[in-house]
Amino acid sequence: MFHKALWIQNYKQSKMLIWILTIIFVIHLPFQTMIAIENWREYPHFYSATEYDIYRLFIGGSLPFFVLIATAILAGLLIGIERNTRRNDFTFSLPFKRGDMYLAKWIYGALSISVIHTVTFFTAYLILFTSEYAYRLQWFSLTELFLTPLIGYVLFFSFAMFIGTIAGEMISQVVLTFIFAIFPFGLFVLLGYGFDLHFRFNWEPPEWILYAAPLLFPFLNQQDQSLVNPLLVALPWTIATLAIGYFLYQRNKVEHNGEFLLFKQLQPVFLVGIVVCFALLGGMLISAIVPWGMTDLQVIAYWIGFLVFALFSYLLSRRLLSMNVTVKNK
């Protein structure tokens, strides 16, 4: 896994994305911290260094989501792009074990994310610590501000790498990463809406469902979580996705490169899952058009949307599962 050739290969495939990820982190942490401090100084009546402001500075906001997008694309460049270009025909011909190749990719990506986050975080932390607002940092521990989002990013990367072992090309890898990273929470919301509409049963998502969605981990605030420390769940999650990805990468079906899925036995499961989820989503969207209070009409609209979206998603899924996206590798 520490073969120099593998690390050079991984860097050449992803160096542009690594620099983009660095820029996002710099804007998210040091640059945003400097702007926030200036706003607190210049407009004390409109901006104040509240507990929420400190939390949003290091964890919240929209910029961490761009970090996750770049992280998913990084995993796609390390695995999925090789399938689109059939470059892994050459990679697998190298005198290295597939397991070592996967570990080299995972360590390279996880280490890059960790180093970039660590450097930019402590730069931002030092900027705030040396300002007159340093006392605000006492509201949070370093574990909350530093470790929770870092482990969340590494978990999401590990999950994206795992998805790359079942996806046949880069686009499907990135798309499936986000779908399954939010799937437990999203499915609960869709089912809950249906139960509420039909039976007036308010089915609120429980707290534990947040821990089953890797997409939400970097945004979890330990102070708001009464069930368990997010770190105690993220570490087993990361180890599990790494182990399963390691196992599946050694058994990839290279003859299915460029297709939506590498393992054909998963196609019926994906077909049913895509149709059901889109049907539930269609029912929710169409029923939401009906004015609130017209319950009977909302139920009718729900089933119209359910059936229409189910039909179109079935036709689209069949074509999607049979596609092949390969390009000539120059």
Low-confidence stretches: none
Number of domains: 2
What letter string, H or E per element, gives the SSE order?
Answer: HHHHHHHHHHH
Count of beta strands: 0
Give helix % range: over 70%
Taken from the alpha-carbon principal axes, the silhouette is: flat
Mean pLDDT: 85
How much of the sequence is in beta strands?
under 5%
Biggest sheet layout: none
> Kindly, what is the distance between the CA atoms of the first and last residues, rounded to a whole number of angstroms?
26 Å
Give the helix tally.
11
User: Measured on Cα atoms, how large is the radius of gyration?
Assistant: 22 Å
Structural class: mainly alpha
Task: Walk me through what this model shows.
By secondary structure, the chain is mainly α. It has 2 domains: 4-186 and 203-258, no CATH class; 263-330, no CATH class. Helices cover 70% and strands 0% of the residues. It contains 11 helices and no strands. It has helices spanning 4-42, 51-58, 63-84, 88-91, 98-129, 142-164, 170-199, 208-211, 230-249, 267-289, 295-321. Helix 3 (63-84) packs across helix 7 and helix 5 runs antiparallel to helix 9.
